[in-house]
Amino acid sequence: MDRSKAGAVASALKVSERGRQIDDEVFKLALGLPPDSIKLTAGEPDFSTSDFVNQAAIQAMAKGLTHYTSSNGIPQLREAISRKLREDNNLSYDPDEIVVSPGSSSSIFLLLFALADRGDEILIPDPAWFHYAILSELAGLRPVRVPQRKEAGFRLSTDDMERKVTRKTRLMIINTPSNPTGHVMTRDELEEIAGVAERHNITVISDEIYEKILYENSRHVSIGSLPGMKERTVTVNGLSKGYAMMGWRIGYSASSSELAEKMTSLLGYTLVCAGSVAQYAAVEALTNPKSKDYVRKMVRTWSKRREIVMKHVNENPSLMSAVAPQGAFYGWIDVSPSGMTGGEVSSGLLKEYNVGVMPGHLFGESGVGHIRISFATSDDAVDEGMKRLAKFLQKHRK
Questions:
Q1: pLDDT in tens, 322-365
Q2: What radius of gyration, in Å, describes the C-alpha atoms of the chain?
Q3: What is the second-level CATH architecture of the domain 3-48+292-396?
Q4: Overall pTM surpassing 0.70 (yes/no)
Q5: CATH architecture group of domain 51-288
Q6: Across-strand partners of 218?
Q7: DSSP letter string, 29-57
Q8: What SS3 class is residue 14?
Q9: Span 196-214, pLDDT tens digits
Q10: How far is the C-alpha of 110 from the C-alpha of 99, rounded, in Å?
Q11: Which of 241, 173, 191 is nearest to 211 (CA)?
Q12: How many CB atoms lie within 10 A of CB 227?
């Protein structure tokens, strides 16, 4: 093995080990908590998949539709996604420009290989879902973090982005609504991002997995719908969050036909295809009119819990602060007024008060003084968990 290949393998192993350590921490907090604990950690809806989607899956199995599909997905699903993008996002993509994958994270991972070369740079917001950086490094790219400042409402600024761009910058990933901040990018903000992308010939990967989960007057805009941006944007989405289809693992990307062909090849050699039965269930979720009511029901419930979170935050300004999330189902809480880091709060809160939350450092350097809570759980769990958080911060404030 030559030095360059040996170095690449060593680098991948190092990244893999760091990713494993992060995933171990996340697993313990999200899935490995004691049964009697209050879990404010899980990044998934607390609703079950709707009955009509389940029935569609049962019918698919009864018909024997349990074989491999084409790697880019069954035609019916790609047609449904094409229609959805046109109606919901003002995006025009033919079915052959859409690639279905086993979850949106799979789409992002394969796109990183398809769109850039080893050593290229990718701009990633800070804070952001921690898998973006790990997946980028596994693909041989260098993650470059761009701050989303709390005082600016977590809006990405043109100046911050421009300062991070180099001759090696090839990609940028954005996530709106955002995990973990809940920030929803406005059209003005997206136009600024588009300007940077156009000036420096950067391809934007737009992760829109939380698009259905919006509060008050927030409105989702797809950056690919802006003038001149379809050609330099790949839109990534899935059915896990908005349709409560977490374990079905259905994601997709929409791009040019050339990139879709490359993605299809990568899928065929790695993940083969998304599950056949899950794909037929996804068609039902995207085409059945009842889905809109089911989404509204979930969002109404999470909106109520969002208010519970902000009530407790606002009642304890000397201990914590937060910007009310505009979308998704997370509270990004600044616990630095207590004098503690997010890691100290996360570990101590679990040990003393049996409440699980995510430490903010997982999401980037700017998250050191934060914790992320998920309010995709019961009203009582959110209320009691926030009460215990306030007690813990009061008890240990420095």
A1: 999 999 999 999 999 999 999 999 999 999 999 999 999 999 99
A2: 21
A3: Alpha-Beta Complex (3.90)
A4: yes
A5: 3-Layer(aba) Sandwich (3.40)
A6: none
A7: HHTSS-TTSEE----S-SSPPPHHHHHHH
A8: helix
A9: 999 999 999 999 999 999 9
A10: 11
A11: 241
A12: 7
